[in-house]
Recover the amino acids of this structure.
């Protein structure tokens, strides 16, 4: 755990308040705006979006999540980017990089993750944004490996991981440390992608 901060301590601090911003064919991955908070809270209260999470979030919990993401950007130079689809929607959710705050067998690690408004599923936006986030992780942040994890039932999420070229070793499956024994969402599958595999 303690070594995690060393991995990205050399990241440039430029654009500390507004960047880094990533652009893809269809998307802009940007820092969060206050106007994102209301639609994000609606997503976090949506039973479809939150099907594979232990609980939906209140407005206060959703806002605190945004605050933690922005604090992460300021501390590390990367985070879960707010996703905009220019000309279509100013905010559809997030895709990006985060550092789990708990200990687990795969830690220390940087995680790639995604959460989109369900009206924007099935369009390839999560995978497209995640490709940009992986490029940032390996090319800009100089990270050696990225992990991602989810419950086995979250097929849409692990299919994004597989589309990105991430691979799963069943020996890496783990019980989420923040969920109690017997909780139906406790067991997780872990996917990994190394920089060398990404380059290859
Ligand atoms: C996980 C999640 C981001 C996946 O979203 P998604 O839209 O299924 O994933 P993608 O953006 O990669 O889109 C892939 C789909 O878009 C389709 N698609 C349509 N147009 C496309 C295009 N131009 N390019 C690529 N794919 C396209 C693909 O065929 C694929 O469809 P399929 O699912 O029917 O096979 C979304 O389900 C979600 O936000 N879930 C709730 C939050 C969550 O559980 N997060 C993960 C926690 S671990």
């Amino acid at each position: 755990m303690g070594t995690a901060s060393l991995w990205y301590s050399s990241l440039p601090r430029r654009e500390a308040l507004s960047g880094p911003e990533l652009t893809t064919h269809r998307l802009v991955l940007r820092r969060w705006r206050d106007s994102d908070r209301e639609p994000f809270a609606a997503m976090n209260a949506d039973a479809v979006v939150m099907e594979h999470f232990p609980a939906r979030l209140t407005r206060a919990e959703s806002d605190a999540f945004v605050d933690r993401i922005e604090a992460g950007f300021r501390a590390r130079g990367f985070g879960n980017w707010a996703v905009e689809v220019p000309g279509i929607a100013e905010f559809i959710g997030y895709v990006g990089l985060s550092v789990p705050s708990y200990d687990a067998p795969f830690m220390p690690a940087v995680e790639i993750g995604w959460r989109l408004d369900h009206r924007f599923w099935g369009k390839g936006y999560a995978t497209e944004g995640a490709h940009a986030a992986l490029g940032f992780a390996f090319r800009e942040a100089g990270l050696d490996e990225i992990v991602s994890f989810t419950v086995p039932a979250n097929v849409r999420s692990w299919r994004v991981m597989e589309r990105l070229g991430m691979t799963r070793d069943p020996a890496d499956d783990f019980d989420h440390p923040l969920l109690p024994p017997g909780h139906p969402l406790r067991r997780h599958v872990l996917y990994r992608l190394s920089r060398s595999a990404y380059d290859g």
